[in-house]
Amino acid sequence: MHTFSQRIKQELCTTVYEKSAIKPLLTSFFINNLTVHINSEKEWWEIRSQFLPIVRLISSLLKQQYKIKQQIGYSQIQKINNSRIYQILIESNLNKIRKDLKLDAIIPDEFIQNPIAKRSFIIGAFLSGGSISSIDKSVYHLEIRSTKIQYLRIAQKILADFNISISILSRRYVYVLYIKRATDISDFLKIIGAKQAMQELEDKIIQRDYYSAIHRLNNLDIANLKKITTASNQQIKMIKAIKSTKLYQQQDKKFKYYCNMRLIYPEASLLEIVKLFKRLHNINITRTGINHYVLKIKKIYKAL
């Protein structure tokens, strides 16, 4: 079964991109993924990924844009993580591609000047080095890795233009651009056009918020129940102490009804006592009236 990261990338790899989006996407992907091989005879390029749909997408975009021949291959399954590395080998039209995608430029400004180019650049960044934690966990974490700090700063600037707060840190031999806020991650998915993944994440956020609210309400109910029980036990103690007194006998029947109900229904709330008055004695009474009886019980008890 695919991870959430793979489902996002699968969605991106099955998207049909307009022509103006292809170059920024390829430029971003190549900056972060391209390995250049040179020997005495020739130069060739290599693109690698553990996710086959990414290799197929990049290969398709290269054919569409440059009509070049490529060779797609793969390695043996690795014992460490039980995965296979897929690769694209490119040997023709390298200078044309290099020049067209501005791969020798420090910052390919022309590819990040409009919304389509910006979004495409971020798509290439996520496909080449992005991942997101499982959305079944309580803490979300999206990151894009690269060995090129300037590249991530471009991505950071683009995301800032979309009002997403993002940080960059150094981790061993790579730099990591990361987002932790669930709302920012949802906005990120919207920016790159991963609508299904965004919906899945937002459904999970709503579900988690719902269960958190239920948990808080349950805790509140338990706390209220404890308060009711404590108050009820105190009342029962006082009622038992005053029932044999002359002062108790002088009280009206509604007061005595309440005292008997509290003894019989020790865990009943004030609202439930109100309903019992109506059901058992056909008497309409308010919670304020019952509170008056509670105060009277305390007053008689103190007078003992």
Count, helices: 12
Q: Average pLDDT across residues?
A: 86
Tell me the series of helices and strands, N- to C-terminal. Answer: HHEEHEEHHEEHEEHHHHHH
Secondary structure: number of strands: 8
Sheet having the most strands: 4 strands, antiparallel
**First-last Cα distance:** 74 Å
Q: Could you tell me the strand content as a percent range?
A: 5-15%
Please tell me about this protein's structure.
By secondary structure, the chain is an alpha+beta fold. Helix content is 58%, strand content 13%. It has twelve helices and eight strands. The chain has a four-stranded antiparallel sheet, with helices on one face. Strands 5-6-8-7 form a four-stranded antiparallel sheet. Strand 7 and strand 8 (174-179) form a beta hairpin. Helix 2 (19-33) runs parallel beside helix 5 (115-129) and helix 8 (195-242) packs across helix 12 (287-302). It is rod-shaped and about 115 Å long.
Features:
single chain, about 300 residues, alpha+beta, four-stranded antiparallel β-sheet, 12 helices, 8 strands, rod-shaped
Element layout with pairings:
Blueprint: H1 4-13, H2 19-33, E1 35-38, E2 43-49, H3 52-66, E3 70-74, E4 86-90, H4 94-100, H5 115-129, E5 130-132, E6 142-146, H6 149-161, E7 167-171, E8 174-179, H7 182-191, H8 195-242, H9 246-249, H10 253-264, H11 270-281, H12 287-302
Helix pairs in contact: 2-5, 7-8, 8-12
What's a quick, concise take on this entry?
With 304 residues, the chain is α+β, with helices and mostly antiparallel strands. The protein contains twelve helices and eight strands. The longest helix has 48 residues.
